[in-house]
Amino acid sequence: MRKKNIIVVGLQWGDEGKGKIVDLLAKDADIVARYQGGNNAGHTVVSGDLSLVFRLVPSGILNEEKICILGNGVVIDPVVLFQELEDLKAIGINIKGRFFISYKSHIIMPYHKRLDIARERLRGAGMIGTTGRGIGPAYEDKVARLGIRAVDLINRDLLYKKIVLSLKEKNHLFKNVLGEDVFNPDDLIEEYLNYGGKIQEFLIDSSIFINERLDKGFNVMLEGAQGTFLDVDHGTYPYVTSSNTVGGSALSGIGLGPTKIDEVIGITKAYTTRVGEGYFPTELKGEEGRVIRDKGEEFGSVTGRPRRCGWFDVNLIKEAGRLNGATGMAVTKLDVLSGLGKINICTGYMLNGSVINHLPFSSADYDKAIPVYEEMEGWSGDISSIKSFKDLPVNSQKYILRIEDLTGLRINMLSVGKERMQTINLKNIF
User: Fold this and answer.
1) Residue 171 — pLDDT band, cuts 50, 70, 90?
2) Can you say whether residue 214 is alpha, beta or left, with left for phi > 0 and alpha for psi between -120 and 50 degrees?
3) Distance spanning both ends of the chain, measured CA to CA
4) What residue ranges in 270-339 does DSSP mark as E strands?
5) Residue whose C-alpha is closest to residue 346's, from 338, 336, 333, 355
6) Nearest residue to 267 (alpha-carbon basis) of 27, 4, 5, 15
7) The predicted structure's pLDDT at residue 22
8) Are 15 and 216 in contact (CB under 8 A)?
9) Whole-angstrom Cα distance, residue 112 to residue 330?
């Protein structure tokens, strides 16, 4: 029987615990490939005393003999990438012959990062909440056909011409609009040619590479960064990221056709979190939100920013399920809710006198949507060592079954702790 090819995607605003789930599922995948985003998001994997944050390299790299790929839809900061590779080497992870980069992936340059930060400062109260790591401006250059691709780093003349062309406009902005220092192309060329020398051994055509191996019986798991509602088209615009995060973009971001995919697994927390600005109707701004944040250690794995915390939102997950064509989901951090007397589930929004079961269409209505809640009894005790669903507290079982019923999505996995193995498998994915 042919092994399945799957997409793993976040169903909320990112930070759903995809790193742990990808790490667990990687044992059944031959290839793990990242299809979009940059180093503005991190996947955290905890194993014993070891806690690793992956900003670019797929977290599946910890599974020996697995092939990991950064696809053409990813934007890469070489500074971050090679530090990450050094960190992996320091703990004995051998990447030789099993880590690759699409030659079509785009490169984040120093001027992208400066532009990102300066623009956010200029927005003032209207800031988006960007991490300032240059991801948005790098994607802008890609779409504007000014981008520098990974393969360009190994050609001095081409790289220099592209840097000069990109800086014509940007230096004008820096000097005359943003009040920033300008860049001299001569100060960048040697550094990025050096990165080209390092990156060359990893470059492949990800589409050819993966398709050839699928024909030989390999299987692939595609993973993204962020979550569904940070998608530049389908998210809570304008408070979104600069790429398409939904499962459909996995195909273009790596070079696969839609007929190759068998399953789309969505990841959601047992509650909801969000980093940065924007729509979040179930946010808890008082003591309950602080308790969840502290217990769940809800601070950005890359930025350290505190995450906003709130109740589980059925509208979000149903819409995310539809947008991604999700065939199942994994629910993480169920253990964080232990000890709460009452737990709410948002089943709809009250907007202009009527209950709606979708996100507001206009950002003008974001602040007007009032969550409609269904209250459930909580449970107590440490559930992190429980291995079977039937051994969970009865009220936590009811909570999970109610989520499954309301969202219409089957639950494949439950995470009840930070550790790799603190996970309950309910239904086989592969």
Assistant:
1) very high
2) alpha
3) 11
4) 272-274, 308-310, 312-313, 328-332
5) 355
6) 15
7) 86
8) no
9) 35
Closest CA to 73 of 246, 199, 307: 246
Mean pLDDT of 409-423: 93
Instruction: State how far the Cα of 135 lies from the Cα of 113, in Å rounded to an integer.
Output: 8
Q: Are 381 and 393 in contact (CB under 8 A)?
A: yes
Distance in angstroms (rounded) separating the CA atoms of residues 312 and 347: 9
Q: Over 80: is that where the pLDDT of 41 sits?
A: no
Distance CA 194, CA 197 (A): 5
For 192-220, the pLDDT digits (tens) are 999 999 999 999 999 999 999 999 999 99
Give the confidence band of 276 by pLDDT, cuts at 50, 70, 90: confident
pLDDT range class, residue 302, cuts 50, 70, 90 = low
Tokens representing residue 292 in the block: 């969840």
Q: What is the pLDDT of residue 189?
A: 96
DSSP state, residue 384: T
For 333-361, the pLDDT digits (tens) are 999 999 999 999 999 999 999 999 988 99
Helices (H), 206-354: 206-215, 249-252, 287-295, 314-324
What's the fold here for domain 6-102+203-264?
Answer: Adenylosuccinate Synthetase; Chain A, domain 1 (3.40.440)
pLDDT exceeding 70 applies to what percent of the chain? Answer: 95
The DSSP code sequence of 25-91 is HGGG-SEEEE-SB-TTS-EEEEETTEEEEESSS-GGGGSTT-EEEE-TTBEE-HHHHHHHHHHHHHT
In this structure, are residues 265 and 7 in contact, taking their beta carbons and an 8 Å threshold? yes
User: Above 80 in pLDDT, residue 130?
Assistant: no
Q: What is the mean pLDDT of residues 328-334?
A: 96
SS3 135: helix
| CATH for the 106-198 domain, from 3.40.50.10330, 3.40.50.720, 1.10.300.10, 2.60.410.10 | 1.10.300.10
Nearest-angstrom CA–CA distance, 59 and 63: 8
Q: And the tokens for 70?
A: 């950064």
Contact 276/129 with Cβ under 8 angstroms? yes
Token pair 């979009």: residue: 36
Active-site residue list = 15, 43
Q: Which residue(s) pair with 376 in the sheet?
A: 343
Give the architecture (CATH level 2) of 268-425.
Alpha-Beta Complex (3.90)
The residue written with tokens 């605003």 in the block is 13
Q: How much is the pLDDT for 50?
A: 66
